[in-house]
Amino acid sequence: MPSSRRSAALTAALTAAALARPASWVVRAAQGLPTALGAGRRELRPTVAGAAQFSEGKFHNTLPSPAVPPAAARTGLLRQMREDRHNGVPARPVPVLRPHFPEHAGELAVTWFGHSSALVEIDGRRVLLDPVWGERVSPSPLVGPRRLHEPPTPVADLPPVDAVLISHDHYDHLDLPTVRELLRTQSAPFVVPIGVGVHLRGWGVPADRIVELEWDGATSVAGLTVTCTEARHFSGRSFARDTTLWASWALAGPRHRVYFGGDTGYTPAFAAIGARLGPFDLTLLPVGAYNEAWRAIHMDPEEALRAHGDLGGDVLVPVHWATFNLAFHRWAEPVQRLAAGALRGGVRLVVPRPGERIDVLAPPPPADWWSAVGSADGSADGSADDDLPAAGTGGRSPGRSEGLSPRN
């Protein structure tokens, strides 16, 4: 569907959702939609048509991976949307640290900014992962899941980076305002799965700053080998799905290796990636926004531990949790389950606070900070705007789950 028609459809959805809202609210909620939605099928087709995972008009996982649950599961999801929508809210403020960046990148370090955004230092280079600094993960400035904590630092205060990696085009992994700020403040290339570069070019990123790869494709950046690896997920920034490829990433320097899972369900491909490109000194794996209904495309904490083992991982840092309320589980649950499983299995786990820099070669003693934050009891309410479905986000609302149609 061309961008203009997709914009019109989403504007109509916003209007219906707003019901008695003033017309001015609808106009403000729809502001910037055509640009934020990114490229449509027509613009993407010349780039993606020949890709190995692309057939019958869309990209495919290696394994069957339904993103929409079967009809039998939808009744339970509707109940969860009514009863559990606020479970993912923290009971107390999330501790946010002002990050300290050394003048020179370290041998192996990670600074977590929240959700899936992180800065990895590997063999003296810096790589920025899925940077999202926006207030909402949505094409709309007024509708969509909003942040549960502030960004630890402005984009402009980041040190110079050697590459920006994007795992896929969902709003909580590819954020237009952040891309614009990185375009202004950094000179590094964007290394992305095939098709995502079309979004970037439409947003003004020069073609010579974009590297698009398919699974198993690799490029060299600042002496690092960056390999696009398989993930089990889906894509799309509006009602059209699977229009661009999704991926995980393997980074290899002269001395160390790092794996970034992006967003993915569990897949046997982890073992193959570990055998071919591992073992990995550090893995960053998604642990949040899980639900039985979309098990194929989101891992739970125990699956993340299994993936870490498959990859030959040494130190595990959990991502895709804490910053946005995207599912029905309680806020602290992903890391509580992960920590318990890591203790049982002898896995080296590091859970930084947002903004905290961890020297992976000399990590601090384990510290449970998330239990002090805790999870809300489910009675917390968002603002009135939070009760409206988000356009282009599969029907979820700010501070609530992805519902019947997960987007992240």
Tell me what you see in this structure:
With 408 residues, this protein is α/β, with parallel strands linked by helices. The chain has one domain (1-408): Ribonuclease Z/Hydroxyacylglutathione hydrolase-like (Metallo-beta-lactamase, Chain A). Helices cover 25% and strands 17% of the residues. It contains eleven helices and 16 strands. The chain has a seven-stranded mixed beta sheet with strand order 8-7-6-5-4-3-16, with helices on one face. A seven-stranded mixed beta sheet has the order 9-10-11-12-13-14-15, covered by helices on one side. A two-stranded antiparallel sheet has the order 1-2. Strand 11 and strand 12 form a beta hairpin. The longest helix is centred in the N-terminal third of the chain and has 16 residues, at 3-18. The two termini are 21 Å apart. The model is unreliable at 1-9 and 378-405 (pLDDT under 50).
What does this entry show, briefly?
The chain has 408 residues and is α/β, with parallel strands linked by helices. 25% of the residues lie in helices and 17% in strands. It has helices at 3-18, 23-29, 33-37, 41-48, 71-83, 176-185, 196-202, 269-277, 301-310, 333-345, 370-373; strands at 54-55, 58-59, 108-114, 117-122, 125-129, 163-165, 190-193, 210-213, 218-221, 224-229, 248-252, 257-260, 280-286, 313-319, 348-349, 357-359.
Strand and helix map with partners:
Blueprint lengths: L2 H16 L4 H7 L3 H5 L3 H8 L5 E2 L2 E2 L11 H13 L24 E7 L2 E6 L2 E5 L33 E3 L10 H10 L4 E4 L2 H7 L7 E4 L4 E4 L2 E6 L18 E5 L4 E4 L8 H9 L2 E7 L14 H10 L2 E7 L13 H13 L2 E2 L7 E3 L10 H4 L35
Parallel strand pairs: 5-6, 6-7, 7-8, 12-13, 13-14, 14-15
Antiparallel strand pairs: 1-2, 3-4, 3-16, 4-5, 9-10, 10-11, 11-12
Helix pairs in contact: 1-2, 8-9, 9-10
